[in-house]
User: Fold this.
Amino acid sequence: MLVATAGERVTVELALLPNFESFPSFEEKAPTFAENSAGKALYYSRHCAEMVFADDSGLVVPALGGAPGVQSARYAGPGATNAHRIEKLLREMRETIGSDRAGYFVCAIALAKQGRVLAVVTDRVEGEILESPRGTAGFGYDPVFYFPALRKTFAELSAEAKNQYSHRGKAFRRLLSHLSTML
Assistant:
């Protein structure tokens, strides 16, 4: 639900899609984050009258040819844990030094309504891949993703700081800005 009055901030009420658990899951097989997010948003938007947004995000390491990339969640195979994915990433980067340890998180968010894409926004955050994990917050690759601006890994940041600087937080703010121009 979107609520806005001229000159005021857009208020968005988020809710899970009713009966979400009963829908077959969307298989992410597109080559880009934007295509995966748009595919999910389109797929689920056909099941309700409201706007639906979906995201796809992941870690990109240029020295690894862009891996893990859109395969970030599946990087270490089916059923792998975050620890397994991090272990594989660090193993593949063990000979990598200096600027070749650069990486970035990407988030693409698509907005759709009843089978029609209304917007796709993306954002990213630059960082470096550490040689070993640090911190206990966050999830995924956060313990090895060092954010130089704050001199911490994403797993060492508070939830508020991560929301302010992360790829997902930046993309969501971009989506909200876009929504305000639609009203």
